[in-house]
Amino acid sequence: MPLTCSSYQAYDTRTARGSSFFVIMVGSPRKWAASMRMGTSLRKSRTPIRSGSFITSAYIMYTRGMAVRCRVYPAPAQEPLLLEHCGHARFVWNLAVEQQSWWRPGRGSAPGPAVRQRQLAEARKAEPWLADGSSSVQQQALRDFDRAMAAFFDKDNPAGKPSYRSKHGTQGFVIRDTNVRRLNRRWAQVHVPKCGWVRFRLSRDLPEKLGMARVTLDRADRWHVAFPAPQSALDRRPTGAVVGIDRGVRTALVTSDGQHYRAPRISDRRAARYLALQRRMARQQKGSRKREKTRRAMARITAKVTDRRKDWAEKTSTRLVTDHDLIVFEKLNTKNMVRKPKPKPDPDQPGAHLPNRARAKAGLNRGILASCWGLLATRTEQKAAASGALAVYVDPRFTSQQCRRCGHTAKENRESQAIFLCVECGHADHADVNAAKNVLARGLAMAPVSAQAPGPWGVRPRKPAKAAAGTTQEAA
Ligand SMILES: [Zn+2]
């Protein structure tokens, strides 16, 4: 094993066919050690990269939390029981969150996992309604919480702090030691404690070994069951092809080869309906049945849009990973990209505002595009890791203002939204393609500068023309 690394390393490695490309490792060596200890079934699945197959295993850390998800169709009599499990799991989880929230510096530690389980047993004795529910579902909710706390304290890759779960959001509970029986090619049943066999659609192959399963109810009233499973490898052969990707404004994605990928948007009709429902809901009384009906109608629209968005991200990421060995993204803070549309003040009446439905619709679309981008990048990363390709991120600053040929960086280079025209050397290109080429160059240029790299994202580009090595010349 040729591995002695700082927190950032790059490797010139060869694919199975002999073409050369750089493999860049990001993250701490401690994490790599941990991920290399992980099961061989994950490693077996990938396309061989000579002297580099262990490297892709460093990316297993991104593949956690993946699952095969199937739609569940409970019988009418089963649905209230499932809902009750959701309620109990939520109640137990929220109690654990509350206990944790009482902790202050100097107050001693909050109860640990074992103490919490004992407290749950006592609570079940004291409260008959809790004892009526499934103890395994309730215990699993606490274990779920323990895992969430562990993820929160994970120094290398911290997650958010576990927070209260609302009965208005997505509901769910976890089954341990899942039992599944197949009915036929299309249908199977999963065993839920105190509820019996519940039917679900076999839309995808289930993982060979079943451990836990999570049953969820989304806001559009659809039940699903998710079985944790590693990402399976895509059917691909290493090509040595590399690609950089820019997030354009109009078209969602532009690649360095000049390919455009358009993300789904919300249709005019659907947006108008959604905004009308939103206004109606604002007038309705909280907790009323009519308001609940409005909420459901809104949730159905959101679900449709989300489904289309996910579908697009899956298809596009598969295509990117099948066709390329290295995929370079910009590192973007997606949260900042979703902003509320500004209100439009009425010139005749100070303090009043004009209706701005167009802006509201633009706001909806902006949110969809931003989430598409995040989803696409994550899925590409996961599929690449499982299939012997690599996805990396680079610093996005000035990629749209930098000239691909001479490296001159200036605002004036942007002739318009669509055209790039360098004021220094006269190089002209499609603005987003020029930016995508810059992204790719930065991804490739990370390799020679890795030893001195200040952070995981490589050398930061500076505003004056002195750009990082490899970023100034047009790739031959
Ligand atoms: Zn130029």
Question: Overview of this structure, please?
Answer:
The protein is an alpha+beta fold. The chain folds into 3 domains: 1-52 and 452-471, no CATH class; 67-228, no CATH class; 242-343 and 353-444, no CATH class. The chain contains 12 helices and 19 strands. It has helices spanning 29-36, 40-44, 53-56, 79-101, 113-126, 128-132, 135-153, 268-283, 289-323, 334-337, 357-387, 431-445; strands at residues 8-15, 20-26, 49-50, 67-72, 171-175, 180-182, 187-192, 196-201, 213-217, 223-228, 242-247, 253-255, 260-261, 326-330, 344-345, 353-354, 390-394, 419-421, 428-430. The strands form 6 sheets. It has a 5-stranded mixed β-sheet with strand order 13-12-11-14-17. β7 and β8 form a beta hairpin. α5 (113-126) runs antiparallel to α7 (135-153). The longest helix is centred in the middle third of the chain and has 35 residues, at 289-323. The chain is globular and about 80 Å long. 30% of the residues are buried. Mean pLDDT is 75; it is low at 1-64 and 447-476. The structure holds zinc ion. Residues 403, 405-406, 408, 422, 424-425, 427 line the site of zinc ion.
Question: What features would you highlight for this structure?
Answer:
476 residues, alpha+beta, 3 domains, five-stranded mixed sheet, four-stranded antiparallel sheet, 19 strands, 38% helix, globular, disordered N terminus, disordered C terminus, binds zinc ion
